[in-house]
Amino acid sequence: MSVGDRGDYRPFFKYGSPSRQEILAVVADGWRNRADAMEIFGSPIPSGLEAIGKAIEIDRQLLIASASTANRLALAYSLRLEGDSFRTVALCSNGAESTSAYRHSRDRYAEVLGILTSLKHSDQLPRDAGLIALTSHLADAGERLREGNDQRVLSSR
Predict the structure, then answer these.
(1) Looking at residues 133-153, what average pLDDT do you find?
(2) What is the pLDDT of residue 40?
(3) Which is nearest to 143 in space by CA: 102, 114, 113?
(4) Are 112 and 80 in contact (CB under 8 A)?
């Protein structure tokens, strides 16, 4: 379905034949839904990361085709899910794996904040975009990384 040129997708869309971007948006939503379900039902974290990674890949393609508010919000949501997954990995692991996961988490949250801040400055940000929780997660990831760096400095002395 992600190829977008096979099959008859008209029954799944209100207005007839969908464009390639509409099909890709539905596929990305499907991967996000799968990642959400995997998290809810306790599936292995790597499987969830793979699912959300596919959604991010498609969201980035959609953003290149059209930098609409909807596409930017979809990418931000996918990145937040990936950041949350990396944060879970970090909380469940130790040492270098934990530090790496916090770094990935922080990077995803920072990218989401950049997208949401840009939308906010252009008055395109919906009220329920979750900036407060995201800012809190970003601060937590940054703090955990600083703690990890402080511990490494102390242990090297």
Answers:
(1) 62
(2) 82
(3) 102
(4) yes
Give the residue-averaged pLDDT of 106-119: 86
CATH assignment of the domain containing 101: 1.25.40.10
| Average per-residue pLDDT for the chain | 79
Token pair of 133 as six digits: 């929780």
Does residue 126 surpass a pLDDT of 90?
A: no
Specify the amino acid at residue 125: L
Range of the domain at 48: 10-156
> What total number of domains does the chain contain?
1
